[in-house]
Design goal:
By secondary structure, the protein is an alpha/beta fold. The protein contains 7 helices and 5 strands; from the N terminus they run E-H-E-H-H-E-H-E-H-H-E-H. It has a 5-stranded parallel β-sheet with strand order 2-3-1-4-5, with helices on both faces. Helix 1 crosses helix 7 and helix 5 packs across helix 6.
Amino acid sequence: MERGDTVWLVGMMGAGKSAAGARLAQRLGREFVDLDAELERSAGRGIAEIFDAEGEEGFRARERAAIESVAGKPAVVALGGGAIAQPGMSERLAASGTVVYLRARPETLLERVGDAAGRPLLEGLDREQRRLRIRALLARREPAYRSARIVVDTDGRSVDEVADSLARELAVE
């Protein structure tokens, strides 16, 4: 990892990007950016409200602009689950930093997202429907996730264990 590179954390909702990313940033002495939180702050409303008002296309346009605003900065950035799967995004992320895939089994993701409140792609679905949607999203996004330079499994691991593993992997880069 180059000193000025951005560390991009990708993976499904519930994989641990925000929690592990914040801890990793502390360990590396870098700024932490939760891109979804930044989008909410700049829009003055939640992700679900952005989706409702602007659709996925509007949300993705905001997301691309936010990514460009931090690309190349020495920060740890947790991206939304679908960001890297957008056309040209995996190449853009790789060109401006180190892409890390936080991987978790669908069963783990389902447990971590709970009732999916505030998660527009799962909201309003019962548990079985959420399970099926998570599997479908993961299947569709997995090729983009696999483009990451580093893959770290988060199943059965604490936030500190994941952050420590990430710090070790990045030190080897």
